[in-house]
Write a structure and sequence with these properties.
- With about 700 residues, this protein is mainly beta.
- The protein has one domain: Maltoporin, Chain A.
- It contains four helices and 42 strands.
Length: about 700
């Protein structure tokens, strides 16, 4: 199989502390071009967990990396699609991302981009639905407060860090067209140009239009991601990046779970008033600049800043039995219109200095840094102002004759300001086979909420977030690890009858890490126990209001393994046992949306020699156990498994690929989130897509 040139803007500042004792490290700002072997599914190092380039086997935390090669070979098109390759993650579908984020180990995760926050709370206005221009996705499980934080504080459940590609000094790239089921048309491309010596430009982008297996639902989206890199001198470089994302889609609110699971509804029905309902608009823009300077091979400075703004204009319609007291009976439901407007502006900067030193009998990598984040968030909602529904729809045999009525002016709003200043320090120390990591972050968060409903929250929080962990090399390539970390966050969008307290979390974990290149085996086996205090949940007695329920817990076992004995074959396997428990509003009940058992197995075989050289085949199976929809538990979605397959033929500059989703045509339901009522959405039926790619 011919391989394209893999251009890496290398960050070679940090080998492991142990390696630093035996070899000289080149300047981190020089571009390295790697040719030959294709990128694999496993990577040996990560910078997300420690902000230094550290071997994963030395990181005392479960960190999983989804590589660009895996994303492309599996034809993954959204972040949610890609995250099924990581254990313990409950992905969010793009059409519901405005209401709920991905879940890690039972608790909400947060999406970061290149190590900086994109305003994230219980809702995610930023959805990287395009994976064009993404180098890899790194998932840090559990609290990650020591090095990260933003508008609301520090991540409680974990971080999903989307790492984008950097320009290289080699001109090249590709253009492609993907088409298939549901009238999907998806042109995309990624072009890199070396402008002059030391200056390179890259532009990645895509456009997609599609219909849906759900009636009336369809959409369009596009993304453009330009970037420029400047090699100022041998020790200094500057990277400037932009990203402009647009998405338009008729908002889908889900089907009532009780009737849908009983089989009395049309599974593809649109539960609303589509006549005149505008498509929900989600626009976000950002600019990022990163300056790196090496004072020496042992002292490195990194300064990164970003300006981000997002506008979301939602027009929705939904069913909520009994909300208007009209007493409709399934399959006939009242339909309510809703209008929501969100606007976010965020400016954030992070600066850190890393120093490698020999002291106290060991090799140390010291990191000290500071972070500032200013966020402005405005949200307004108009909800059935007339206190009456638009009409009634029969979801067993929908006629779609209801007209949408915009709910303006809005009748509730919140206008918030969050200002964060934090300082942090970290030490990574190596004493022979023992690798220690310790860190501390002090955060001051000024939290101002103005709202016309509920009790406003106007307070400054100061919090100390520690982290400590160790790994021990049992034999080369096999290590034991253990770690402890905490985090805190101000309660975002809390509307209640009492002022809210900050949410906190803590996590302890341990297990085994593998990095055995001779046999091609790598991965992590981890056991964990995590708690989340002052949890914000929907108030069952007041629609649209929240309460802080007390404590929630999650514990379990996770396995993430990659086996690549030869370049021709890759096998990925993951499994998660996640036992969750609520100790607040529903003591003993399981947390919503989190399966107790979940996993995936995926394999890829590539023909590297002979007449069929360039041909490859892949297949995978993903499975979930049942998932509760509500807390307290009242109804659950049954578990299911689906099969995906892919094949491609690489002719060098031209390649052709085919992928099939849900090969067996399994009909099942997924949890959905909309306005607090238990709803579900149908899983994607059997779908096929063809991709033609031309390399430049």
């Amino acid at each position: 199989m011919k391989t394209s040139i893999i251009a890496l803007a290398a960050t070679l500042a940090f080998t492991s502390p142990a390696a630093a004792q035996t070899e000289d490290t080149p300047s981190w700002t020089r571009d390295i071009v790697v040719t030959g072997e294709r990128e694999g599914y496993a990577v040996p190092t990560s910078s997300t967990a420690t902000r230094t380039d550290t071997p994963l086997i030395e990181v005392p935390q479960s960190v999983q990396v989804v590589t660009r090669s895996l994303v492309q070979e599996q034809d993954r098109r959204t972040l949610g699609d890609a995250l099924v390759n990581v254990s313990g993650v409950t992905p969010t579908r793009s059409e519901e991302n405005l209401f709920i984020p991905p879940i890690l180990r039972g608790f909400p995760g947060e999406v970061y981009l290149d190590g900086l926050p994109i305003f994230a709370g219980n809702q995610q206005a930023y959805d990287p639905s395009s994976l064009i221009g993404v180098e890899r996705i790194e998932v840090l499980k559990g609290p990650s407060a020591t090095l990260y934080g933003g508008g609301l504080g520090t991540p409680l459940g974990g971080i999903i860090n989307v790492v984008t590609e950097r320009p290289s000094d080699k001109t090249g790239g590709y253009v492609a067209m993907r088409a298939g089921s549901f009238s999907t048309w998806n042109p995309y491309g990624d072009i890199n140009v070396a402008l002059t010596s030391g200056i390179s430009a890259r532009v990645a982008g895509e456009y997609q239009s599609n219909k849906s297996w759900i009636d009336k639902v369809g959409g369009k989206r596009w993304s453009i991601q330009p970037s420029l890199s400047f090699q100022i001198d041998a020790d200094t470089d500057l990277l400037v990046q932009g990203q402009f994302n647009r998405r338009r889609q008729l908002e889908y609110s889900g089907l009532p779970a009780d009737a849908a699971l009983a089989g009395t509804l049309d599974r593809d029905a649109f539960p609303g008033s589509p006549i005149g309902q505008p498509r929900t608009r989600n626009d976000n823009n950002m600019g990022t600049a990163t300056l790196r300077h090496a004072f020496s091979d042992r002292v490195k400075l990194t300064v990164t800043g970003r300006d981000y703004d997002s506008d979301v204009d939602e027009s929705g319609s939904f069913v909520y039995p009994g909300l208007a007291g009209t007493g409709t009976v399934a399959p006939n439901y009242d339909v309510f219109p809703i209008t929501m407007v969100n606007g976010t502006k965020e400016a954030t900067i992070d600066a850190n200095l890393a120093v490698k030193a020999e002291m106290l009998g060991g090799a140390h990598t010291l990191l000290v840094g500071a972070n500032y984040d200013w966020t402005s968030f405005y949200s307004a909602m108009g909800l059935f102002v007339s206190d009456s529904p638009s009409g009634t729809i029969n979801l067993s045999n929908p006629a779609y004759d209801l007209r949408y009525t915009p709910q303006t002016p809005v009748n509730s709003y919140t206008d918030d300001r969050f200002e964060t200043f934090a300082v942090y320090a970290q030490d990574q120390a190596t004493y022979g086979r023992l690798h220690l990591t310790g860190g501390l972050r002090v955060t001051s968060l000024k939290f101002i909420e103005n709202s016309n409903i509920g009790v406003a929250n106007d307070k400054t929080y100061t919090h100390v977030s520690p982290r400590i962990g160790a790994t021990f090399d049992v034999v080369p390539g096999i290590a034991l690890f253990a770690g402890y970390a905490t985090a805190f966050r101000a309660p975002f969008g809390f509307i209640g009858t009492q002022a809210a307290k900050p949410e906190t979390s803590s996590n302890i974990e341990g297990g085994v890490k593998l990095a055995l290149p001779k046999v091609g085996l790598s991965g992590t086996i981890a056991a964990f126990r995590q708690t989340h205090d002052n949890v914000v949940t929907a108030d069952p007695a007041n629609v649209g209001f929240y309460v802080q329920s007390g404590r929630q817990r999650a514990s379990g076992l996770e396995v993430d393994l990659v086996w690549e004995p030869t370049p021709a074959f890759s096998l990925l396997a993951n499994y998660a046992y996640t036992n969750t428990r609520d100790d607040g509003v529903a003591p003993g009940d399981t947390l919503a949306r989190v399966p107790k058992d979940s996993g995936r197995v995926a394999a890829r075989y590539r023909v590297l020699n002979g007449p069929a050289k360039g041909l490859s085949f892949g297949a995978g199976i993903t499975a979930f156990a049942s998932r509760e929809l509500t807390l307290p538990n009242s109804i659950a979605v049954p578990g299911y498994a689906v099969i995906d397959v892919q094949t491609s033929y690489d002719l060098g500059r031209i390649s052709l690929g085919v992928s099939v989703v849900n090969l067996g045509g399994r009909k099942a339901w997924d949890p959905h989130s909309y306005m607090g009522y238990p709803v579900v959405s149908p899983n994607q039926p059997r779908s096929a897509f063809v991709t033609l790619k031309a390399r430049i």
